[in-house]
Design a protein that fits this description.
By secondary structure, this protein is α/β, with parallel strands linked by helices. The chain has 16 helices and 17 strands. The strands form 3 sheets. The protein has an 8-stranded parallel barrel, surrounded by 7 helices. Bound molecules: ligand TNX.
C-alpha cells in the first residue's frame, strides 16, 4: 500500500518535472526584442525585457480612414490564434492588451513608409506618418509573433511579443520584384499570391512583363488580336492566356491595397513576335510570322520605319496608362538584336515621348541608356556595366537588377532542376552579399532608385516553381533595399533567414532548403 502510494507520488513528481522542463524549453516567453528574427532588418530595435500577449480581450483600434489596414492585420492574426480580434473605430472601454494603429503628422522623419512600434506589457502601438508606413509596420508585427501565426488553421498559443521599441524606415524608395507572365502565363490568383509574398518582406513594386515573343498578356481593346491570337500560346506550346482589362484592374487594386505599385511592361522594339504574328502590318515585309513557343531571344523587331507602328504603340500606351495609377510604364528596349542601332535609338526616343504624353515616366532596360533621354526616364541595369555607367553619367535614375546577383531565374547551383545559368549560379549567400553602390563602377547613390529582382519564366510553369526560385532569395533582396548597408551582414542574415524557414513552412511555401542555412526550426512545423 505504502509502496504503491510512493510510486504514485514519484510518478506525479516525475511528470511534473518533465512538464516543467518541456514547458520551459518549448514555451519560453520571449522577452528580448533584439533577438527576434525580422527581415528586412529594422533600423533600430530597443528591448525592455518583458512581453505583450494577444488575448481574448485584444482588439485593434484605428481611425475610420485607415480601418482597411487594421482589417488586413486582423485577417493575418485571427485564423491561427482563433481569437476573433476585431477592428474598432471608437475609443476603447478597457485598457488591456490592445493594438493601436495611428497616423501622426509629427512623425515626419519616418517618411513615406517608415513606422514606429512601441510594445509594452499592455499595449502595442503602431504609428506612422503615412498609411504605407502602417502597412509595413504590420508586416513587422506578423514577424514578431511565433511562426505558426502564418498557419491557416487554429493553433495553440501563447501569442507573445517581447516589449520594446522599433523605429524603422527604408533606405531606398523602390524595392521590387518582376514576374514574366509572357513566357508562361500566370493567372490573377497566382499574381495575387506573388503580391502577398513580396508584401510580407516590405517590397513596394511589382513589375509585370506583359509581352514578349511568346505571348501578349494584356487586353488592348483597339487591337483585339494581340490577345486573341498573340495570347493563345506560351513556351512549350501550352494554351497561354491573358488578363482582360477588368482582371488587370483587380490585380492593380489588390497591389494598391498592399501599397505596392504595379509597373506594366510592353517590351519593344524586340521581343515582339506575339504582336508581329497578330498584325501583319507591324512587320516591314507586311507578313505575319508564326507564333513562337521556343526560348531564343533577339530575333524579332517592330518595323521602326512605319507610321502604323507608332499609331499601334500610342494606342497601347494610351489604354495601358488609363489602367495604371502608378507613375511608370516600362517600354522594354532590351536585346533588340534584330533592330539596327540607327533605328533603335530614334525608336526609343519616340516611344519615350509617347509615354510622357500620357503622363507616365518611361522605364527602359539598360540598352535604352544610349538614346537621348529626358531627365525623368529611368534605366534598369541588368548586365552591361557600360550601359549603367552611361545612365549614371547622364544623371538618370537607375534601378539595380544585376543578373549575376538578382535574377531569380538563375539556378542556385548546377543541381537545380529549374531555371537557367547564363549569368551565374546564385546561391543564397551570393544573392545577399553585394551592394547596390559598389556593384558597378561609377554608380552614384543619389541616382540609385532602388532594387528589383526579376523572375523570367522560360522554365517556370507553376506556382510551386515560382516559390522555389524566389524563396529563399527574395527576403535578401528586400533587405538590400530596406536596411542600411552598414548594418547588413551574412551571419546575422543567415540566422534570421533560417528562422524564417518555419514561416515559409507555415505558409506552405515551396522553398529551396539551401545547405548554407540551418533550417532546423522549419522541421518542427507540422
Ligand atoms: C535576358 S534580362 C532577358 C530576358 C530573358 C532572361 C533570361 C533581359 C532584359 N532580357 O528576355 O528572359 O535573360 O534569364
Amino acid at each position: 500500500m505504502i509502496y504503491s502510494k510512493m510510486n504514485v507520488l514519484m510518478k506525479t513528481t516525475f511528470t511534473m518535472i518533465c512538464f516543467f522542463v518541456l514547458f520551459s524549453c518549448t514555451q519560453k516567453t520571449p522577452t528580448d526584442l533584439t533577438l527576434v528574427s525580422i527581415i528586412p532588418l529594422p533600423v533600430s530595435v530597443q528591448a525592455t525585457g518583458s512581453s505583450f500577449a494577444l488575448s481574448a480581450d485584444t482588439d485593434i483600434y484605428v481611425s475610420k480612414e485607415h480601418q482597411s489596414i487594421a482589417q488586413y492585420l486582423a485577417a493575418q492574426l485571427n485564423p491561427a490564434t482563433g481569437l476573433d480580434i476585431t477592428v474598432k473605430t471608437e475609443a476603447p472601454t478597457s485598457s488591456s492588451s490592445h493594438i493601436y494603429l495611428s497616423i501622426s503628422p509629427e512623425e515626419k522623419d519616418l517618411g513615406e513608409e517608415g513606422y514606429l512600434l512601441e510594445i509594452s506589457e499592455d499595449s502595442l502601438k503602431l504609428t506612422a506618418n503615412n498609411p504605407a508606413g502602417l502597412f509595413r509596420g504590420v508586416q513587422t508585427i506578423r514577424q514578431l509573433l511565433p511562426a505558426k501565426i502564418e498557419m491557416s488553421t487554429k493553433q495553440e498559443g501563447p501569442w507573445e511579443i517581447p516589449t520594446g521599441t522599433i523605429r524603422d524606415k527604408p533606405q531606398y524608395a523602390f524595392r521590387g520584384a518582376m514576374l514574366d507572365v509572357s513566357r508562361h502565363f500566370f493567372g490573377v490568383e497566382d499574381v495575387k499570391q506573388y503580391i502577398d509574398m513580396i508584401a510580407h518582406y516590405k517590397m513596394n513594386v511589382l513589375h509585370l512583363h506583359l509581352s514578349d515573343d511568346q505571348g501578349w498578356r494584356i487586353e488592348i481593346k483597339s487591337w483585339p488580336n494581340l490577345t486573341k491570337h498573340g495570347g493563345s500560346t506560351q513556351v512549350g506550346g501550352g494554351k497561354g492566356g491573358f488578363y482582360t482589362q477588368e482582371q488587370y484592374k483587380e490585380i492593380v487594386q489588390y497591389a494598391q491595397d498592399r501599397f505596392i505599385t504595379i509597373i506594366p511592361e510592353i517590351d519593344m522594339p524586340g521581343h515582339t513576335n506575339a504582336a508581329l504574328s497578330s498584325y501583319p502590318e507591324l512587320n516591314c515585309d507586311g507578313k505575319a510570322p508564326e507564333l513562337y513557343t521556343g526560348i531564343e531571344v533577339g530575333f524579332s523587331s517592330l518595323c521602326t520605319s512605319k507610321e502604323i507602328t507608332y499609331k499601334f504603340i500610342e494606342d497601347v500606351i494610351k489604354e495601358l496608362a488609363a489602367l495604371t495609377p502608378g507613375p511608370y510604364i516600362h517600354i522594354g528596349g532590351d536585346e533588340s538584336h534584330a533592330t539596327k542601332k540607327e533605328d533603335y535609338l530614334p525608336f526609343i526616343e519616340k516611344v519615350q515621348d509617347i509615354v510622357q504624353k500620357y503622363g507616365k515616366q518611361p522605364i527602359g532596360w539598360e540598352e535604352a541608356a544610349q538614346a537621348k533621354l529626358k531627365g525623368n526616364t529611368v534605366i534598369q541595369y541588368w548586365s552591361n556595366p557600360d550601359h549603367a555607367k552611361e545612365a549614371f553619367a547622364k544623371n538618370l535614375q537607375v534601378i539595380m537588377s544585376p543578373a549575376k546577383k538578382a535574377y531569380m531565374d538563375m539556378q542556385y547551383d548546377s543541381t537545380t532542376a529549374l531555371g537557367l545559368h547564363w549569368a551565374a549560379y546564385i546561391e543564397v549567400d551570393s544573392a545577399y552579399i553585394w551592394d547596390m553602390e559598389t556593384i558597378v563602377a561609377g554608380a552614384k547613390k543619389e541616382n540609385i532608385l532602388g532594387i528589383e529582382a526579376p523572375l523570367w519564366t522560360e522554365t517556370i510553369l507553376k506556382m510551386d516553381d515560382i516559390e522555389y526560385m524566389i524563396f529563399p532569395r527574395l527576403p535578401g533582396y528586400a533587405e538590400i533595399g530596406w536596411s542600411p548597408a552598414s548594418m547588413r551582414n551574412w551571419d546575422s542574415y543567415k540566422r534570421r533567414l533560417g528562422e524564417h524557414g518555419a514561416r515559409f513552412k507555415a505558409m506552405n511555401i515551396n522553398y529551396y532548403p539551401s545547405k548554407l542555412v540551418d533550417w532546423s526550426l522549419a522541421k518542427e512545423v507540422k
